[in-house]
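Standup notes
- DV: blocked on the single-chain target, sequence here:
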Amino acid sequence: MNSIPFITVEGPIGVGKTSLAKLLSEYFQYELLKEIVEENPFLGKFYENIDEWSFQTEMFFLCNRFKQLNDTRDHYLSKNIPVVADYHILKNLIFAKRSLQDNDLQKYVRIYEVLTEDLPMPNIIIYLHASLDTIMARIKKRDRDIEKNISPLYLEQLASDYDIVMNDFKKNNPHIPVLDFNGDTLDFVQNKQDLVKIIDTIKETLNIGAFKHESTKKI
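- DV (later): unblocked, structure below
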C-alpha cells in the first residue's frame, strides 16, 4: 500500500466503532475523525417515528460528514498525516436505503453522488459486526437518551444490511482491504489481547514499517 493510511471503522449501531477508533488513534498516533451523532437535532425524533423524520436525519448526517471529510483531506491527508475514522461515508446509503421512502431515496442518492464524487476515501476498512443481543447490550450500557426508543427490529435489519453491503464492497473493491472482526467473540475495550490481535492485523495489512508515522505506544 503506497498512500498515507486512512483507516475507517464501520459496523452497525452499538458495535463499538468509536471505542476502537479511539484506541487505534492513540496506539498508532493517527488523527482521530469522529462522526457527529448526538448533535443531530432530528435523531431522537427519528427513533420515535422513522417515516416522518428519516429524510431530515439522513441529510443532516450527509452534510456534516461531507464537511468533515473535506476538512480531513485539506488539514491532514494532503499533508501526509494518517487518519483513523469511526465511520465510512458509505454508511449514509446503508441507513438511507433502510429508512427512506422511494421518492425521497432517489433525491437523496442524487445528492449523495454529487457530494461524494471527489471526497477522500479510506484505504482500509475495519468491519465490526455482532449479534443483536450483543448490540442491544452495548447500547443499553452506554445509556444514550436518544437511543432509548430504538427498535430491536430496526437494529437487526440494519445489521443484515451491513453484511450485504460489506460483502458487495469486498467483491467490487478488491484493492481495498476489509478486515472483519466479530464483536461477539472480541472485547477490545476490556481484553488487551483482543486489541493486540486487531492491531497486529492492521500492521500486517498496512505494512506499517513503510510509513514515517509508525510511532506507536505500548498498550
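- Follow-up: The chain is about 55% helix and 10% strand.
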